[in-house]
Every structure is written in structure tokens, then in C-alpha cells.
Specification:
The structure is a homotrimer of 344-residue chains. The first copy, chain A, has 344 residues and is of the alpha/beta class. Chain A folds into two domains: 97 residues, MurE/MurF, N-terminal domain (Udp-n-acetylmuramoylalanyl-d-glutamate--2,6- Diaminopimelate Ligase, Chain: A, domain 1, 3-Layer(aba) Sandwich), CATH 3.40.1390.10; 215 residues, Hexapeptide repeat proteins (UDP N-Acetylglucosamine Acyltransferase, domain 1, 3 Solenoid). Helices cover 16% and strands 30% of the residues of chain A. The first copy, chain A, contains five helices and 38 strands. Chain A has a twelve-stranded mixed beta sheet, covered by helices on one side. The first copy, chain A, has a ten-stranded parallel beta sheet with strand order 7-10-13-16-19-24-27-30-33-36, with no helix packed on it. A nine-stranded parallel beta sheet of chain A has the order 8-11-14-17-22-25-28-31-34, with no helix packed on it. The radius of gyration of chain A is 25 Å and the shape is flat.
């Protein structure tokens, strides 16, 4: 695609086009990251990115950057075309959308799919080989169900969802529209509810369900459990990475982002816009406010107010944790100093 | 179901019925949690539960509670029927058993199941679509094998077990009776045994197997590895949540409960009645005594005696950890104070 | 197999045969660990192994040990045959290779496999029941693909690889030779790339792929994501345990070993020979040098130089962490002592 045409698309997009400089009309064949990019490719660079040093050696044909005069000057010295926007990452995402090789959209139901008579399938769906759909399950239109997916009975699925290979949806799950469930993820499995009785564990029946609202995306090998009563619910627009555990009865707000290996224990309530970094844990029944950010490996054991940034275990304010952690490294010296003072 | 009939069932159950008060004969249609419950529903409330405040506003028809006079008085002021038992959670579990919509029990072997000629299948089993059963595998009676399950060769399975969709059982696994293996869990995969040799990793063949004793339940996306020799074994009545790793040659006692994302490294020996909270790790070859409790994210790096409650990493007594953690937050102040004293 | 024949095999192997003593010519039927071994079995014992005490009670017929005079004397008092080698574990691995019951190698393509017309399958492959292979996928010779595996379109697979049941390979994945992918692992799923925009998450298209080089082995229920552009790559000979997350664009060197539940965030660069113990986390874009060792639960948040041994979170030198951790336990006392000094 000609660079001029790409610039036109950026102007129409959401990245906040500012200006272009040094433009050479050239055919752009693909997008790449700065350290790998070469002639006839386009790339982007954000403030403070480690890749910045590659500017002096790259052969890339075009760079999308923010309004950083120093960088612009540096690139101008080279024969590289420059596109300046408010948000280079957004512009790059829009360009990748053009170059992405979309998987060939198939339609129809594969002969080997096993679909219960009492289920209802909407129009324009693809149901791949070896897919199983249980009794009384209702599936809307334009859903894409990859091979090996198992959807149990009494499931309700809206429109435009994608289910990647071998994921499993248990009974009583409600999935709205435009959701993505990645491979080998399990939605609606039995919550871990056991009552100690005479040294053994008696099961609390898990009769509830799971609700995924619009635009929820869930990574690979995740688990979202159903509760004893009521619903485990994930709010609109929330994105979840791989190997994440969502316990029974958890309620997650809108537009959250959870990184890989996060675990949310049963009954926790998570607000809107919450960001949990990798391997964070949230205790059962804890309430996490809106827009909270927890850094990696944080253990949230008690309620957190709106907007807090927390770290460590037990979770504390991030700034405080950074200070305490830097003292932690010096503990042996401190202890020694204290012994010396004590002797005086 | 009429409330009087529910009370009769509770009397016959294991929750320790004490008395009922304020009983209005009404039709109970379902069970719910206190914050969601409304007319014609039944709920329960335990001591110190955060939901307690909902008593003043709920429309629920009946509440099961313990012998707490204050609570009883408070509920009596309302038109709510009260059922008093020793253990409200147990009574609620028994009621959920009544109201639970059981999945329709199917029987027989689906045409698309692929069962090796040398395998033996007991009576009253259900074997769903696309199930694979390998050579020389013996399956007892009344097992329920959901679609997409793969059971390899030389596996022995007793009676009354449930295998949820797409779980995988490797060779040399022995599963006794009344076990549950949830979706996408893998039992009997190769232990992670490699020997460093000339800068590369030489494989230690993993020729052993896995034994799940009676009433073991394992969540979704778990891994139970087989060892080089002998067996990885999980004791009777032990319950395991999602995304849990059980390393090769681990031996787990009876009636343990492990929360999600727990990891037990190879050769660890875990006693009876051990409770491990979420994201706990146990180092290889460590011995954990009976009835040990480890709080979330604890890292058990050395042997733990019977009955200990441990926290933190490296694991220490919970009480000690709580005290040290509270000082950790104040480390910057302490360091400052120490510098001041030192200057004097 | 006669013990003399086993000794011959050890002599030809890589364990560094030194001598044998006390040899009784006997038929060895199997290999076992010392605590379980009995007559007609062979076992091994390494320095400092807890199992050492079993020497005084075992009935095992032969023991492989290192050159430890004390141990040799102790065993000589019994009627046990002794084989002395440089590396007993390597010798034991070689013996297990003899006794291992190999799964019966099948050949051919099962009738229920669903293979796209445009794909190419090499010679001597086994493709099991319900396997799916997508368009334009090229599979080399002598691959073993167990039931339920899904391989998407545009995948390139070399020779001699094994894919265990129900694993999933997404598009644009390249797998070289002699690799193993265990059950329910997902290779090439979409990286977790979202850009915050107006309070919502806009997707960064993930158009890249994944490369597994020769001799890579990946455990069960792992995830290896593809990046926005370029490749996520795992170097030759690297071994990965279960439930591990490899983020988008991660580059891992040769001959690394990662234990269970490790998580590597997007864009991290890991050197050769790196060992990460269980539940270790590596932050995004961090660079970890060659031959680094991180102990369990370590959180690597910044670059680590070649050869370092790190622990804790934030990661610090292991020796320093051990000292600080031992002071951590005494923090309440230290704080008390400081208050006392302050009062004086």
C-alpha cells in the first residue's frame, strides 16, 4: 500500500494526526518493530522506548512518532518518512489492522459437529469440526466456533462471539455479544465450595452461572467458575490474559485489564477500570475500588479504595512499598548498626 | 417446595437442627444469597458475615441462621421465617441439593467415541461424543465421561467417576471411585525431570504413574505429573481447585484442600487435612505435616510440623509473619530513626 | 535383564563408569527409588539425598552411587551389588530408558482426522482421531499427533515432533524438529496487547507468530503468545514445565529450564541456560542474562547480568536476600529495641 494512502487512513483514524514530514512516496509492504524493520516497512516509536537507539541504524521507510522535536530532528537526518500523531501506538494498531492476514471466514456447520436438537443456532455462524452443543442452548448470529469447542446445555450466547479451539462452556453460562474466549479456557465450571465436616469436605452445590458481558475477552487456559447461587459476572469491555483464575461469585466491573496468572478468589468485587499486573492475587470477598492498579505479584488481602496504586503482599501503597523494599535490601546492615548502638 | 417440608429435610440432615421460629407456610421456589434473595426464596447467614446488614431490607421468606440471639431478635421483627441450626452453611448446602437442576444423566456410548478393542468398559457408563479410550484401559461402572475426553492406554478407572469435557488422562493412571476431574485438566503427564549434561538437558524417563484415591476432586486446567519411578498419589477425599500444579512423585494425604494456582514441586510429601490457600508454592522434596494451613502466596521451602499455620516467603509462623509484615511498612521510618540515633 | 548386561550398558553410556563391587549376577526386573525398591530391582543414590537412611533396610539388589567411600563401605556390609559412576542420576536415566514401556507407535492418519486439502503431511506420521489440521499447514516426517490436537492454518512443523492430546497450535507458528508439546498447551494465541483509549481497551492486532526451535519441550496447560509483529521465539533445547505463560514477543535463549507456573511478560529477553524456579515472574521488556538462576517466586523487574543468582521480589542477589529474609523474621524485636534506645 502506498505510504500516502496509509497517511490518509491515519488521518481518518483515532490516533490524532498532527503532521507528516520528509514523506517519500513508496510502497509499504508490512509493519514491523523498530529493531527488525527494514526498507518498505513502517514502524512506530513511543517516548522513552528502549528501541530509540535503533533510529541511527534502521532502514525502515516510515516511522510514526509523537510530537518530540528531538526525535523528529534525529529522524529527519535520515531518509525516513515521518508521521507525527498524538498516539503512535494507536496509529500503528490501525495500520496492523490493514496488514493483518485475517483467517478465512468460514460459514456453516461442519458435518462432525454434534448439536442437540433442542438447541437453536442463529444465522451466519461457523461451527467447526467436532464441536459439541448441548440441549436447550441458544446461540445468536455470526458466532465463530472453532473445532473441538464444547458448549454444554442451557447456555445463552449472543452475537459476534469467537470461541477458539477446545475451550469449554459449562451449563448456565450467559455470553453477550462481541466476546472472545481463547483456547482451552473453561467458563462456568463448578466453584470450589466445600464445607469442613467431621474431618472431610462436604460439597456446597454450585447451582449458579456465569455472565460475560459485551466485548469481554478471555485468554487461553483461564478458568471462570460458577457460584453456589447467583452469578459470577465480568463487566463490559474487560480483557483478561492467559492462565487467570476467576473464582465463584466474583463480580468484575467494566474495562478492567488483568495480566497473566492473576487469581481472584471467590466473592471478590472488582470495580471498573481496574488493572492487575501478572500473578496478582485477590483474597475472597475483598472489594477493590474503581481504577485501582496493582503491580505484579501483589496480594490484595483487604478492601482497596478507588484509584489506589498498590504493591507487595500484604498489599500497601505502591510508593510506600518501593521505599520499604529498598530498606529491605539493607536490613542486615541496619540490624548490625542497631546491635552496635545497643552495646554503647 | 413448602417451607415445612424443607424444615423436615433439614431435621433429617447433618446441620444440627435446633428450632424454627416465626414460620409462615409458604412455597419456597429457590435458594439465594442474602443480598439477592427475595420473596419465596430461602437464604442463610453465618456469624460475622458482611451480608448481615441486608437483614434490615431483605424480602426473603426464610433465613437459616446459627444460635445468635441478637440476629434472631432482629429477624423476628420482620415477617421472615427463621430456621436455627448448628451449621447454617451445611443446611444451605442440603437445600441447594434439592433445588439444583441436575444435568440430564445420559447412558451409553456415543457413536463418535473411539474406544480401543482391548479396553473394557463397565456397566451404566456414559461415554460422550469424540471421547478417546486407549488400549488395555479398564473402566468400571457408572462413569460419566463428557465429550472430548482423552484417556490413554493402560489406565485403570473404578466406579462413579466424572470426567468433564476435554480433560486428558495419560497412561499408567489409576483413578479409584467417586472422583471428579474437571475440564482441560491433565492427569499423568510426564514429570519435569531433566539432568544437566554438557550444557544441555538430558531427559530422565518418567516411567511411573498417578493414583487418585476415592473422592478426589480436581478443578479445571490442573496438571498432575507422573514420576520417573513409582507413583504420584493423591489421598482420599482431597479437593483441588483450578490451575494447580502437582509435580512428579508428590504424595498428598487425605482430605486436603488446595486453592487455585497452588504449585507443589516434585517429590514433596503433604500430610492429611492440609489447607493451602491460593498461589501457595511448596518446594521439591519438602515434607508438610498433617493439618498444616498455609495462607495465600506462602512459599514453603522447608519441612513444616503438624498443625502449624504458616505465611510469607520463606514460610514462617503466621503470627510472626503478621507482626513482621506490619513492621515492614514502617521500615523507612525505622531506618531514619536509626540514622538519627547513630548521629548522636 | 541380567545385572552384568546392565553394567555393560552403563559402561557404554555417559554417566562415567568407575567400578563395580560386590556384584551378584541376578535378574533385574525394574528400576525403583530407594525407599520403594526391593529384590530384583535397581536404584540409585546421590550425595546428600534424604533417602540415604534407607540403605540400612533396603532389599534392593543393586545400587548406583557416586564415589563416596563412606556410602560404599556401608552398602558393602549388605548383600547389595554396587555400581560406582561419576553421575548416578545419568546412569539411572539410561537404565529407565531400557525398562520404560514405550507407547505403541502407531502410523497413519485416523479416519476421523480433519485435514485441509491445501496442507501437506510428511511420511511416517501418526495423526490420531479428531485431529484438525488447517489450510496451508506443512507438517514434516515422523510426527506423532495425538487425538484431539488442533493445528490451525499457515503452520510449519518440521520432523520428529510429538503433540499430546488436545493441545492447540494457532496460525503462523513454526515448530522445528524433535519438539514436544504436552496436552492442552496453546502455542501462538493472541498476545495481550490493548491500548487504553477513552476509558476502553483498543486491540493492538497481533499479526506475528511463534517459533519453537529444535528440542524444545513444553509441559501441559502452557501458553505461548504471538506478538503484534515479529516472533515470540524459544531457543533450541529449552525445556518448560506446566502452566507456564510466555508473553508476546518474548525471546528465550537455548537450553533454559523453567519450572511450573513461571510467567514471562511481553517482550522480555531471556539468555541461554537460564533456570527459573517455580512461580517466578519476569516483567515485560526485561533482559535476563545468560545462565541466570532465579529461585522460586522471584519477581524479576529489571535487567539481570549474566550468571547472577537472584531471589525475592523485587529480585536481588540470592545471598543478600537470604540475609535480609532472616532479619525480616526478627523485625518486631528490632523495632522494639530501637524504641528502647530512642527513649534513652
Amino acid at each position: 500500500m502506498l505510504l500516502s494512502k496509509i497517511i490518509d487512513l491515519i488521518k481518518k483514524g483515532n490516533s490524532g494526526f498532527i503532521s507528516s514530514e520528509n514523506i517519500e512516496e513508496i510502497n509499504i509492504k508490512s509493519a514491523a518493530s523498530l529493531e527488525n524493520a527494514s526498507k518498505n516497512e513502517i514502524t512506530f516509536l513511543e517516548e522513552n522506548n528502549k528501541l530509540r537507539d535503533f533510529i541511527s541504524t534502521t532502514d525502515v521507510s516510515a516511522i510514526i512518532i509523537g510530537k518530540n522535536e528531538l526525535l523528529i530532528e534525529e529522524i529527519k537526518k535520515r531518509k525516513t518518512s515521518i508521521i507525527i500523531v498524538e498516539n503512535p501506538r494507536v496509529a500503528f494498531a490501525e495500520i496492523l489492522n490493514i496488514f493483518e492476514t485475517k483467517f478465512k471466514q468460514k460459514k456453516g456447520i461442519d458435518d462432525s459437529a454434534n448439536i442437540a436438537n433442542s438447541s437453536v443456532i442463529g444465522v451466519d455462524c461457523y461451527i467447526g469440526p467436532n464441536v459439541i452443543i448441548g440441549e436447550n442452548t441458544i446461540i445468536g448470529s455470526n458466532n465463530y466456533i472453532f473445532p473441538g469447542v464444547v458448549i454444554s446445555e442451557n447456555v445463552e450466547i449472543g452475537d459476534n462471539n469467537i470461541f477458539f479451539p477446545n475451550c469449554v462452556i459449562y451449563q448456565n453460562t450467559i455470553i453477550k455479544n462481541n466476546c472472545i474466549v481463547n483456547s482451552n479456557t473453561v467458563i462456568g465450571s463448578e466453584g470450589f465450595g466445600f464445607i469442613p465436616q467431621n474431618g472431610k469436605w462436604k460439597k456446597m452445590p454450585q447451582t449458579g452461572g456465569v455472565i460475560l458481558n459485551n466485548e469481554v475477552e478471555i485468554g487461553t487456559n483461564c478458568c471462570v467458575d460458577r457460584p453456589a447461587v447467583g452469578f459470577t459476572e465480568i463487566g463490559e469491555g474487560t480483557k483478561i490474559d492467559n492462565l487467570v483464575q476467576i473464582g465463584h461469585g466474583v463480580n468484575i466491573g467494566k474495562n478492567c485489564a488483568f495480566a497473566a496468572q492473576v487469581g481472584i478468589a471467590g466473592g471478590a468485587i472488582i470495580g471498573d477500570g481496574v488493572i492487575l499486573a501478572g500473578q496478582v492475587g485477590v483474597n475472597n470477598r475483598v472489594k477493590v475500588g474503581n481504577n485501582v492498579i496493582a503491580s505484579s505479584k501483589c496480594g490484595i488481602h483487604c478492601d482497596i479504595n478507588d484509584g489506589e496504586v498498590v504493591s507487595g503482599f500484604p498489599a500497601m501503597q505502591n510508593k510506600s512499598w518501593l521505599r520499604s523494599s529498598s530498606v529491605f535490601k539493607k536490613l542486615p546492615e541496619l540490624a548490625k548498626k542497631l546491635r552496635q548502638l545497643d552495646k554503647k
